[in-house]
Amino acid sequence: MNTLLKVAQPLTLPGGAVIKNRFFKSAMSEAMADRSNSPNHLHIELYRKWAEGGTGIVVTGNVMVDRGALGEPGNVAIEDRRNMEQLQQWAQAGTQFGTHLWMQINHPGKQSPRTMSKQPVAPSAIPMGGSYGRAFKAPRELANAEVKAIVKRFVTTARIAKEAGFTGVQIHGAHGYLVNQFLSPADNRRTDEYGGSRENRMRFLIEIYDGMRGALGADFPIGLKLNSSDFKEGGFTEQDSLAVVEKMAKRGIDLIEISGGNYENPKMSADDDSEVFFLKYAERIRSLVDVPIVVTGGFRSQAGMEEALTADNTTMIGIARPLALVPDIPNRILEGRYDTVNTQRLTTGFPSLDRRLGAMIGLSYYEQQMKRIAQGKPVKLHTNGWDPLLHTLREQGIAAFMPRRSN
Ligand SMILES: Cc1cc2nc3c(=O)[nH]c(=O)nc-3n(C[C@H](O)[C@H](O)[C@H](O)COP(=O)(O)O)c2cc1C
User: Fold this and answer.
1) How far apart are CA 12 and CA 254, in angstroms?
2) Pocket around ligand 1: residues whose beta carbon is below 6 Å from it?
3) What CATH topology corresponds to 6-346?
4) Are residues 260 and 174 in contact, defined by beta-carbon separation less than 8 angstroms?
5) If you placed Cys at 46, which of 129, 207, 247, 374 could pair as Cys (CB 3.0 to 4.6 Å)?
6) What's 281's DSSP letter?
7) Where would I find the NADH:flavin oxidoreductase/NADH oxidase N-terminal domain in this sequence (predicted)?
8) Is it the case that residue 15 has pLDDT exceeding 80?
9) Residues with Cβ < 8 Å from 214, sequence gap 6 or more?
C-alpha cells in the first residue's frame, strides 16, 4: 500500500473519531427498498462491497424520516425500530475493515413528486419552479408544531442509526430538500421563528443538529451536506452558505460536505468530466473555519484528488458515481492499480429524448449498477441510454419518468 499518498492519510474529526483515509463515498440513493421502504439484503450486500473497497467514510443514500414523505420510489424510511435487525446487518456489513458508515438523513419537503405525495409540505406554500415544476404538486405550509415534529423525526432516525451500529450520520441540507428549503429565502417566507432573518432560516437545521448532538453524544460524528449556493435569484446565496458553515463549525459539526444546485437549476453534477466545481468555494471556507470539508462532484483522476488535498482545498475527496461503477477505487489507488473512471453522458441516440430524460437516464444507470453490485453481478460499462431506461421502466413503471432529483 502506498502510504505516502495524501489520500492515504488518516483523519481525526473534531469529535475524536478517526477515519482511516481521505476517501468519502457520497450519498447515492439506492432505490432498492420495496413498498414498505425497509432496508433489505441488497443494501447489506452493496455496502459490504463498498466497505471491502477501502473507502474511509461511506455515506448511505438518503434515508427518509417519514414514510409519508418520500423523494422517490425505493427510498429507505426509518421512523421507528421496526427494521432494527436489517439495520444492524447493514451496519455490520458496511463497517468492516474500519470503514465508517454514516446514514444520510433527509426529508424531501416540496421536492416529493406528485406520484409520491398528494400534497407535499414546505416552509411556505410556494410551488416548485423551473422546467420540472409540473412534476410536483403545490406544497402546503407547515404549521409551527409540525416543524418541531419533523425536527424530532430527524433526531429519532439518527438515534436508531446509532443504536443499529452506524458510526455517524449526515444531515442532508443540500439539493433543494426540506433543510435547504428552510435555509433559502426563495422557499422560506415564514413569519414565525423559522423564517425571515438568516438566523431564523437556520433555526430548523440548528434544532436538528442540537437535538442529534444531545441524543448521540459529543463523540458521535455528525456531518452536514450543504449547497455552496442555490444558483438562483433570491435563493440561498454563497454568503448564506458561508454563514451556515461558520455557525455549524462553532457548534461542533464534525464535517461539512459541499455540493450545489437543486432540481430547478442543476449544478451538482457535471456530464463532462471537468474536475471539481466547488473548489473555489471550498478555498473560501478553508480560510474561515477549520472544520473538515469534503468537496464532492467531478473527482475522477488520482492526480486531481492528490492535487486538491495538497492545495488543502478539501480535507476528504467526495466521490459518488465512479464508486457505483468501481466500488474499490480507494484500494486500487492505494495499491497503485487505478485507471481513471469516466462518467460519460448516456444517450438514447435521440437528442430531444436525451434533453427530456437525460437526468433520469443518468440516475437509472447508476441505480442499475448499484443493484448489480449488490447482486454480485459485474457492472455494465456503456453509454447506451436505452438499457437503464428499460430497467427503470421494468422496476418502477411509468412513474419513473417523472423527475425526482436532478443530481
Ligand atoms: C444515482 C444517484 C443518487 C444520488 N443520491 C443522492 C442522495 O441520496 N443524497 C445526496 O446528497 N446526493 C445524492 N446524489 C449526488 C451525489 O452524492 C453527488 O453529489 C453527485 O453525484 C456528484 O458527485 P460525482 O461527480 O462524484 O458523482 C446522487 C447521485 C446519483 C448519481
Assistant:
1) 9
2) 26-29, 61-62, 104, 172, 174-175, 225, 259, 268-269, 296-299, 319-321, 363, 366-367, 407
3) TIM Barrel (3.20.20)
4) yes
5) 374
6) H
7) 9-339
8) yes
9) 155
The stretch 161-171 carries a mean pLDDT of: 98
| CA 62 to ligand 1 center in whole angstroms | 10
Cell of 137: 404538486
Spell out the residues 6+ positions from residue 12 whose beta carbon is closer than 8 angstroms to its own: 18, 19
- Atom 21 (ligand 1): residue with closest C-alpha? 320
Q: Which amino acid is at 383?
A: T
Mean pLDDT of the chain: 91
CA 28 to ligand 1 centroid distance, Å: 5
The neighbour count for residue 70, using CB atoms within 10 Å, is 25
C-alpha–C-alpha distance, residues 388 and 350, integer Å: 15
Q: Which amino acid is at 8?
A: A
Question: What pLDDT does 380 receive?
Answer: 92
Report the range of poorest mean pLDDT among 30-44, 159-173, 175-189, 293-307.
293-307
Tell me: the pLDDT tens digits for 358-368?
888 889 999 99
Are 194 and 184 in contact by the 8 Å Cβ rule? The answer is no
Q: If DSSP codes are grouped into helix, strand and coil, which group holds residue 304?
A: helix
The whole-angstrom separation of Cα 369 and Cα 379 is 5
Name the grid cell of 1: 500500500
Which residues, other chains included, contact 394 with Cβ-Cβ below 8 Å and sequence gap of 6+?
Answer: none
Residue 174 has pLDDT above 80, yes or no: yes
- Give pLDDT tens digits for 291-334: 999 998 889 999 999 999 998 889 999 999 999 999 999 999 99
Secondary structure (3-state) at 345: coil
**Coil, strand or helix at 249:** helix
As a whole number of Å, the end-to-end CA separation of the chain is 34
Between the CA of 259 and the centroid of ligand 1 the distance, in Å, is 9
Calculate how far, in angstroms, residue 29's C-alpha sits from the geometric centre of ligand 1. 7
DSSP state of 208: H
